[in-house]
Amino acid sequence: MNKRLVVLVAVLLVYVLVACSFAQLLPQREARITSTPTRTPKPTFTATTIPTRTLTPSPTPLPSNTPTNTPMATNTPLFTNTPLPTDTPAATLTATNTALPPPTAIPMATPKPTRKPAPKPAKTPTPQPTKPPVLPFTAAIVRGYTQCGGYRGVTGFVRHANGSPYPGVAIGVWGDVWQGRVAVSEDSGKFELSLSDVPVGKYKVAAVRLETCGQRDGLPTAVDCKRVSNVVEVTTTDKCEGAGANQVTEVKFTGP
Fold first, then answer.
1. Pseudo-torsion of CA 234, 238, 239, 241, nearest 10°?
2. Interval 148-159: pLDDT, tens
3. Full DSSP string of the chain
4. What's the distance, CA 185 to chain centroid?
């Protein structure tokens, strides 16, 4: 038991010594770590100017001739102290209220007198041709006949539009140099005008108003009668056979 106590005491002493040693070393270590070493500045060296050696001029041999006294050239200064130009203050611009001239009135152009348009000439209406009045009768050539017995003339019928006979209608025939004659349709509507006593040639035939016709030798003439139908032209020839032979012409008149 005594040995054990001695060993235990020895161990405790060693532990205490070690703990005390660590307790002293720890603050020093922390102080080394935290303290920053300062660098010692290096000594500065001042450059000393080395004196320049002045060369001693060698003696120049004197010329045998007597030297001429030449005036020494004056040293012209390289730089002259020319006074610097002084800053001249800039001119201050002072705004002056200059009265503007009044605006010049722009001359207005003199209006030109308006020309009045010349009055257009009044248009004279062109008279329209008057339409001939509708005639109550219509004349049409039916055919021609040959008659070698020496008879020449115009014959035919006057009828109403429905085909019934139209008696009492005056039919006239005339030529360029012949006053003509007038015949009145019979109860059957037939009429006949002789051309045997006049030369062969062309003649005009139309229905006329008997009361308007002139007279010659107590008989009515047709040249000046008022016509109530259109005018047809018939032709008589001496030739009584073959083509172109015609002595009698049949004309049909149709009335209302």
1. 90
2. 988 999 999 999
3. -HHHHHHHHHHHHHHHHHHHHHHHHHHHHHHHHHPPPPPPPPPP-PPPPPPPPPPPPPPPPPPSSPPP-PPPPP---SS--PPPPP-PPPPPPPP--PPPPPPPPPPPPPPPPPPPPPPPPPPPPPPPPPPPPPPSBEEEEEEEE--TTS--EEEEEEEETTS-B-TT-EEEEE-SS---EEEE--TTSEEEEE-TTS-SSEEEEEEE-GGG--EETTEE-STTSPBSB--EEEE--S--SSTT--SEEEEEEEE-
4. 76
Beta carbons of 152 and 175 less than 8 angstroms apart: no
pLDDT in tens, 178-195: 999 999 999 999 999 999
- What span, in angstroms and rounded, lies between the C-alpha atoms of 206 and 154? 11
The CATH number of 138-255, from 3.90.79.10, 2.60.40.10, 3.10.129.10, 1.25.40.20, is: 2.60.40.10
Written as six digits, the tokens of 126 are 């062109």
Domain boundaries, the chain: 138-255
Using the structure block, give the residue that is written with the tokens 């002789």: 194
**Joined tokens for residue 23:** 């307790």
The whole-angstrom separation of Cα 145 and Cα 143 is: 7
Rounded CA separation 22/161 (Å): 170
- The Cα–Cα gap between 63 and 70 comes to 15
Q: Which amino acid is at 1?
A: M
Range in 77-81, 127-131, 142-146, 222-226 with the lowest mean pLDDT: 77-81
